[in-house]
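Homework help board

Subject: predicted structure for assignment chain

Our instructor gave us this sequence and asked us to write out the predicted structure in token form, then describe one feature. I got the tokens but I'm not sure how to describe them. Can anyone check?
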Amino acid sequence: MSGVLAGFFIVWAMIAVGWVVGRTGVLGPHGRYVLNRSTFFIASPALVLVGLLESDVAEVLSLPMAVAGISGLATGAIVILAVRLFTQRRGADLVMTAISGSVVNGANMGFPIALYVLGDISHALPVILFQQAVYTPLYLFVLHRITEKDSSGPAGVLRSIIANPTIIASAVGLLLVLAGVKIPAVALEPIHSLADMAIPAMLLAYGLSLYGSRPLAKDDGYRGLIAVASGSKLLLMPVIALGVGLLLGMRGASLYEVVVMAALPTAQNVYVAAARYRASENLARDTVLITTIGTVLVLLAISAVLGA
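My token output:
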């Protein structure tokens, strides 16, 4: 239990700093806007590139990454299907519900949870690699396509890719890793410095967004979708990860590890993407809040059932 709480303390402390910054107004009226865009266009691509360049082919092609990929994509697909069948929500609301319910907080929650609960930060790498190399570029591409007016046709597809530096960073990183290219450490230092800014900036921007907000406000009209996204993230995705892990022959500690990683809360970069495209921001913000609180109980339950 102490390991779970230690991991969450780091996140909540930084979010609290962001809230204080918002309350005091030290960054001015555009502080959240600048932080979000700095993270989206500069720090996040650097984080993706560094993460991929410091991995190897064995990590990219590992069973835990397969579980992370299948459980994430399957959860997102199920959410899309359910929302389309049972509601009239389409467009950004539909996509953001699926993303919020299937993108885990692998970086700033994954590492501390992997260290304090599983005993080794390497257990967070497969889910982080999947999201950096595949899922983040994919959902950013989709968001651009549904929110930007210039996104139709082949030229629009090209613009969607060029407009997302994370997609470019992911493609470059994957190509270099699969080709076995090693970049000199000194050349990576500036990228490392920018990457180090990503997670604190995301958490500060999220804390800023909470100041003056009313989570789960009825007027937003998102309560039902937040419930769907939160339930999918906290319950459906870990169950799918458990099933996929069993089918792939994983047992004991290895199975426990992939289920724990699948149960992490919704990532703050989902909110950053929502803010960038002005797509259902309050839906993303409140799902991050609910899942970051609820995941504590889910992880404790998983630890009690599978941890032994």
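Reply (TA_rk): Your tokens look well-formed. For the description, you could write something like this. The chain has 14 helices and no strands. That's the kind of observation they're looking for.
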